[in-house]
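tool=predict chain=A
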Amino acid sequence: MALQVKISIKNMEQPVWRTLIVSEETTFEEFHIYLQIAFAWPDTASHLFLQGDQRFGSEEENLFIGESAFDEEEVTLAEFLKNIGDRMTYINDAEGSRWYHEIILEQKADLPMDLPLPFCFAAEGNSLKDKEFVMEYNVEPMANKELAEYINEQFSEFYDDWFFEASEETEPDEEEWNELFDAADQVKNKKPWLELYDDQLIAIWSEAINDYAYCSIMGNAGESYGVTCFLGSKGLLSFFDIIDSDPYEDNPALLFNQYSVTVDFNNRDDLDEEEYELIKKLGRKYRGKYQWPSFVSMIPDQLPWRINQEECLLLTEILLKLDTFLSDTENLSEKVPSFGGTMLAIDENEALIYLSTDELIEEALQEPVLELDISEIEWKRMRKKAESAGGKEVELALIQMGEPVQNTPDSRPFLPYILILVEHETGAVLHYDLAESVYYAEGVQQAIYQLFDKIEVLPKTIYMIDDFFAVNAEPLFDKISIPLIKTDELEGVEQFVEMMMSEDGPF
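tool=predict ok
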């Protein structure tokens, strides 16, 4: 059940209120955090909820008198806001001033599955200057609709990932496809591979990713033609891996670690059925060798796949800027440096500059940080779980499986990892599970966080191989105060893997 509640600050010269839609299972601790965000109160302020003679909140002597019969971490809104018209008072002691809010239950309805919660339905008043208090988003007054949209942007940290997944896999429409084909044809007609080698990168600033796309022109060797755009610092690192590899060694890891979007110019026979049908559907005409465009998305730990709408728009943006540069530039081979000390770039102002390759590498290899987008409520719950754990010393490892899998028949195949948790002293297997892409810090941290969320008792100490995974997991362990010991060997994990891969094992 969803509750629509209106929260108004009392005794204001101009109305200041928010209408929020929240789940009836929302705890008052969570509701307090929502109100902090909605009204931009500082998180250091003490607070209090009141209804009749019941009161509970932060235990501050200047605000809270007596003992509370309820724990705001456990009691929910449904226990106090039962009927339409029910009221409560919320006091926030920000900046030494007590701000009284009236809470009214306006409506109750079945939980809307297509609406992320919490949700700001309406809002008015983002200025408290008449009480000499300036809220954090009070630089310029906002219109009511703009204010509600801003609050929902702040609420997005609480939304489940599924709410956003649909847009990530949306197919381009015909207009978007045609714009991409047009941009690709324009670049193809310039034949930049006649002057450039594939290691002469051109960095093009992209508004879509707020970073550079590093474009490699293919075709100088006369074998394959196209443009691969390595995206951001992650993509640049995958390009360095290719440059550093042995060209005569078959290394599939290079393929599965790329982060890029590519346009290839193929022969007709090289197109698969879906690519050919798309060209026919769009009514586009091609004839001859290396004339037929196709587009490929490369994401680490996933198989090459057709591009989605977001990637289509991104690649169109990059190719149009590349085409403009090619049209305006003579003597490309002299203008664009070979791979080495500097790199030609088209910056956010579309000016030509040169970037230091060493500085780009240093920036790309900077120390990992905590990248999980998780609400403070969840962090607090996890820290409490860690504090009360009294758990064991464990070995933790992520082992990539060799066969791709799909979540649905039409979804993009990926190479899953086995996430293994083994007791360090005895070698007993405590837990193992499958995880999707963990190539980047966020993926590693997300997989481990989800594991910790499932198990009842958190480890006292964690042992990991001193590698990429341990380095990227460390900020998570620091956040929840679990010691990490990096080592060169995990005996319990090795025994588990041998068992899993044996003839009698499941893999």
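Residues 129-139, 160-168 have pLDDT under 50 and may be disordered. The first strand starts at residue 2 and ends at 9.
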